[in-house]
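User: Predict the structure for this protein chain, please.
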Amino acid sequence: MINQTRAVIITGPGFQDHDVVYSYYRAKEEGIDISVATKNGEPVTGKYGITVPMDKRSKANISFDELKPNDFDLVILTGGHEAPDRVRQDQRVKDFVLQMALQGRIVAGLCHGPWIMISAGVLKDKLACAYVGLKDDMINCGAKVIEADVVVDGNIITCSYYAECGKFMREAFDAVARLKNGESLPEPRVV
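Assistant: Here is the predicted structure, written as structure tokens:
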């Protein structure tokens, strides 16, 4: 496909199964070329037993070494407190997320996924929403945290809870469409 949207879910052991499964298959349904990145490209298992790659038709995971901002339009940072806490300690991921944000590409964090955004330094002065257990960290990094399901501030998207995956993914797809059309929101969107 010419100019097909490319996205990557970055995760690790102990991921929130709901986040990864929904985001992955919803992106595929939308026609997006979706990859899953893990530390060394190895399979990882979520907290409820789902392993990625998820099925025999799934592409092999890619490693953090393969994360190049010019290769992706969208990065999805999923939750489960264990996975994002491990992932945010990896400099390759922090550099990738920062470069995605600086290049105006879409950086979207769900539930505990914004921990990675905090460590990459992309939330300062951004309007955001937060999972209750992450709210203090987001405030302490300089984000302007409000009560909402999903917040879009420029190319940064946050979602407070996995039950709102549908809204989160719709906003991510809309943000990618704006990016590809050279458009932007005149002000943050609160959903």
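Helices lie at 17-29, 82-87, 91-102, 114-120, 135-140, 165-180.
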